Amino acid sequence: MSIKKTNAARLLDGLKIDYELASYMVDEEDLSAVHAAKMLGVEPDVVFKTLVARDESGHLLVACIPAASEIDLKALAREAKVKRCELVAVKELLGLTGYMRGGCSPLAMKKHYATFMDSSILEHEKVFVSAGLRGVQLHLSPKALVEATSAQCVTIIKG
């Protein structure tokens, strides 16, 4: 089965960043990153999910955290130097980013937003992140992902 190139993959091609595309069967009942990890046969700590938050001024923030982790919105707000932030509603995701829930990539969104990666990403040789389509993941070096998204690596998960 050939995997369709996504905008995120084309962005990496343009930046001459090495990656592999990996696909898995999508379960519409479970769009979680933990399920993606299970389907890919990897530990959840190497699969990073993309979350989108809005600060009190209405600016969007993008956060990538390990699949099984929970975001610490206070920590995200502190790192973004804003008073507070909250996750955007799922129904707003497509219009704001160009991606749907379960297929949101930190790469090639409609606009570039301030991006924050949980610093645990740097503990891995390679990680998976959504390629922008449900059931398709990019497998690449964390440093390359951080570079491609101009992300800050900070601690933004609970626990």
Overall description:
The chain has a single domain (19-154), classed as YbaK/aminoacyl-tRNA synthetase-associated domain (YbaK protein, Alpha-Beta Complex), CATH 3.90.960. The mean pLDDT is 96. Helices cover 25% and strands 27% of the residues. It is globular and about 45 Å long. The chain has 159 residues and is of the alpha/beta class. Strands 1, 2, 3, 4, 5, 6, 7 and 8 form an 8-stranded mixed sheet that branches. The protein has helices at residues 7-14, 33-40, 73-80, 90-97, 142-149; strands at 20-23, 47-55, 60-66, 85-87, 114-118, 127-133, 136-140, 152-154. The chain is built from 5 helices and 8 strands.
Overall structural class, as computed from helix and strand content, comes to alpha/beta
| CATH 4th-level superfamily | YbaK/aminoacyl-tRNA synthetase-associated domain
Name the CATH architecture.
Answer: Alpha-Beta Complex
Radius of gyration: 14 Å
Proportion of strand residues: 25-35%
Q: How many individual domains?
A: 1
N-to-C CA distance = 39 Å
